[in-house]
Amino acid sequence: MLRRLLASAALLAAVLALGTAAVACEEEEAPSPTPGRTPAAGAATTPTPAGPSVEIVSPAPNATLPAGDIRVEVRVSGLQVVEPTLTPVPGQGHVHFYILRPDQQVPTTPGQPAVTAQGTYHATATTTHTWTNVQPGTYKLAVQLVQNNHTPLQPPVVREITVTVR
User: pTM here?
Assistant: First the structure.
């Protein structure tokens, strides 16, 4: 009889412990939002992945630079930078560097190669390019992320700055 009483007490203690643990877990869970309602301000949301982006690290916008070689450095995110090929692959592409007159535009026509006149653009799988023997004047330095086949991403990802060369 004593054994039966001890077994019942142990079983009761186990059931109570499990019940207490279940209640504690329920209290820690955040309530689910009501369908059709916006979560309250400050509530955690799942971030949307950002698309590809590019930033010109150097030179600085509106910089005055000495004539000669001009090195442009960019920072790319959200895109695997690879050597140009003929076949677009989602998530891959390369960088086009441009040196243009201030009134010229970077080509962004969908489905068309994003190239300008010979000597004014450079396609590469690197994040730096040096323009050589740049003569005095005002220039637009631009960079565009493009697909493997040289066509612009959609939407286009372009950054540009103006520099003066003396």
Answer: 0.71
